[in-house]
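TAXI family TRAP transporter solute-binding subunit, pasting as requested.
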Amino acid sequence: MKKLMGLLALALIMILAACSSDEASSSANESEAPAADAVPQDLAFGSATVGGFWYTLSAGMADKMAPLYPDSSVTIVEGGSVSNLLGLDKGTFALGFANGQTVPEALEGKNAFKEPVENVSTVATLYPNVFHMVVREDSDIHSLEDLKGKTVSPGIAGYSGELAFQDMLEVAGMSYDDLGGIEYIGTADGADLLRDGHIDAIVGMVAAPLSTFEELDTTVGIRLLPLEDDMVASLNEMNEGYLPYTIEGGTYSNITEDINTVAGYTVLLVNNDLMGEDSVYELTKMIFENQEHWTTLSTIMNDFSPEYSVENNVGNLHPGAEKYYKEVGALE
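Structure tokens follow.
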């Protein structure tokens, strides 16, 4: 299943790249900006796997984008932070989500990025994407160190959740060699494996609360493993995109204690060669005018506003987004 998912996603990316190559080629080979109202006919949206909030939110945004861009069709691609940024850079995706700690690495050409990603801009900073370490309530695992000898799903290989997990293992003086096994699989399928006892833990950077984990909490029962303060400090020193975060008790109905962890903001970005200034302005406006709708999808969006987005901005703002923020007084 995991291999099939990866092959299907790869095949879709290649197809989308081929379809969009004619639209992107002229702008990619020239320094001229696209037309102000430019929008590709095939609007590929780099998201994440089914079961995560990125997928839910991208589906909701796609519905709202249909009347905004009537001559375009939105295709949601199950990507991840790193692959979305790479897809945006190549013009495979017109827009996509990324984690805040990954964006600076992309812009600087560090770690997973062999070269700087230069032709992407930020539309909005949406909400904190929170690192979770989830185990069954009846598990004997109570800390990161207790994962020694256990089977863990870090999501899809190479995605930001796995990279964050590897950073934590490094800080703890551990590696995958200390674990009992790694299961690369999407969030929803990982939850099924945890429920059935086929894996011992799921880790990843997701919304809090996440509906997939809420369902696990009310059926089999789960616990969240906390990070020690020195671990949080070390991660922030390693990458300033890792921010201290507390999952408050009650976020998941059966977990009453506060959980110490880290988070990175979820950012919506666009490809500068494919999306024109006016088109991005309309996209930005639509996103904020539907803020109440996003909160019905998850309470993680409760604080989302133009002011919140500007205050927590990650990356370089697109001129179209900047125009909107100035219009509403969120940016001088």
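Note for the archive: Residues 51 and 187 are 5 Å apart (CA to CA).
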